[in-house]
Write a structure and sequence with these properties.
331 residues, alpha/beta, Rossmann fold, 2 domains, six-stranded mixed beta sheet, four-stranded parallel beta sheet, 11 helices, 17% strand
Length: 331
């Protein structure tokens, strides 16, 4: 299905599918497995690398010499984009929105930001509420005036091209489950810009799988999060030649764990991040994977999942961001 699309090799694939026995025992619920997309390799890893394999290939097809993307100051996507640009000999520019308004020095200068600077990215900072797509277009016009050929990458690389990476992940995960003789009941993951969930959804549907897919929202209200996923899922299905294989009403999200908003800590997230570190030796980030993990843990405790099923939690990475949030964790 995916061989027809341009692709560059950036990720270490396949990523492991690991049983988490101590977490499973501690929760007393279903058996939990972790799909380790924090191990994709590029710039400490994360889910955006899968998307960038297709997006950066499209940028090269369009003869781009500089990529532009956007996100919050501690964006995991930006960090991986900057590294991909270095690997492919391109420049990288970032528009950073100050979504966390009371940020400390660690947030502003450590973690992902430190790595962005190591990769030589040009950073432009804007205030919370800025129209980020318009800001990228403005910067692209400026670069064209300088004789450059810019390529704009949407936030989180969440578009029909980037979502191809998670069609591939769905197929990879099902292959690994077959090899390990694991019958997956649900895949659970953090959902933000929607591209990961959209790709997984299309991958599962086109494979005829009955695996449940649940996104734990990290920022947006329920209907807005559904819309984000649908705006990527529908064109992705058409792009791969399977129009109509997904329906808006089939998108499953839970937005009960966002707390006060994007990038803002919750007690449940802190508990979840420390629990996985101390039970399984695995690091999760405070913004995406940590809140997604907190949601899954709470749902297991509440009996949302059948006790006899196996759950796969897709770890989307982001542990570099822990250093930007070091002051909020109660160690």
């Amino acid at each position: 299905m995916l061989s027809q699309f341009p692709r560059v090799i950036l990720a270490h694939l396949p990523t492991p599918l690991e049983h988490a026995p101590r977490l499973s025992e501690a929760l007393g619920g279903p058996q939990i497995y972790i799909k380790r997309d924090d191990c994709t390799g590029l710039a400490t890893g994360g889910n955006k690398t899968r998307k960038l394999e297709f997006v950066m290939a499209d940028a090269l097809e369009n003869k781009a010499d500089v990529v532009i993307t956007q996100g919050a100051v501690q964006s995991n996507h930006a960090r991986q984009t900057a590294a991909a640009a270095c690997k492919l000999g391109m420049a990288c520019e970032m528009i950073f929105e100050h979504r966390v308004t009371d940020a400390d020095d660690a947030y502003l200068n450590s973690g992902n930001v430190f790595l962005d600077r190591m990769y030589g990215a040009t950073i432009h900072e804007v205030e919370k509420g800025t129209d980020m797509d318009a800001a990228m277009e403005t910067r692209a016009d400026e670069l064209r005036a300088e004789g450059k050929t810019p390529y704009i990458i949407s936030g989180g690389a969440s578009n029909k091209i980037g979502a191809l990476g998670y069609i591939d992940c769905a197929l990879e995960t099902m292959t690994q489950a077959d090899e390990q003789e694991v019958d997956i009941g649900h895949i659970v993951h953090a959902t933000g810009s929607g591209g990961t969930q959209a790709g997984l959804m299309v991958g599962l549907q086109t494979s005829g799988s009955d695996i449940g897919l649940l996104g734990i929202g990290v920022a947006s209200p329920y209907e807005e999060q559904i819309d984000k996923v649908w705006r990527v899922a529908e064109p992705t299905a058409e792009y791969v030649g399977s129009p109509g294989c997904v329906r808006r009403e089939d998108i499953k999200v839970n937005t009960d764990y966002t707390g006060e908003g994007y990038g803002l800590s919750t007690p449940e997230m802190e508990e979840a991040v420390l629990m996985l570190a101390r039970l399984e030796g695995i690091l999760f980030d405070p913004v995406y994977s940590g809140k997604g993990l907190a949601g899954m843990i709470d749902l297991v405790r509440k009996g949302y999942f059948d006790q006899s099923e196996n759950i796969v939690f897709l770890h989307t990475g982001g542990s570099a961001g822990l250093f930007g949030y070091s002051s909020i964790l109660s160690l």
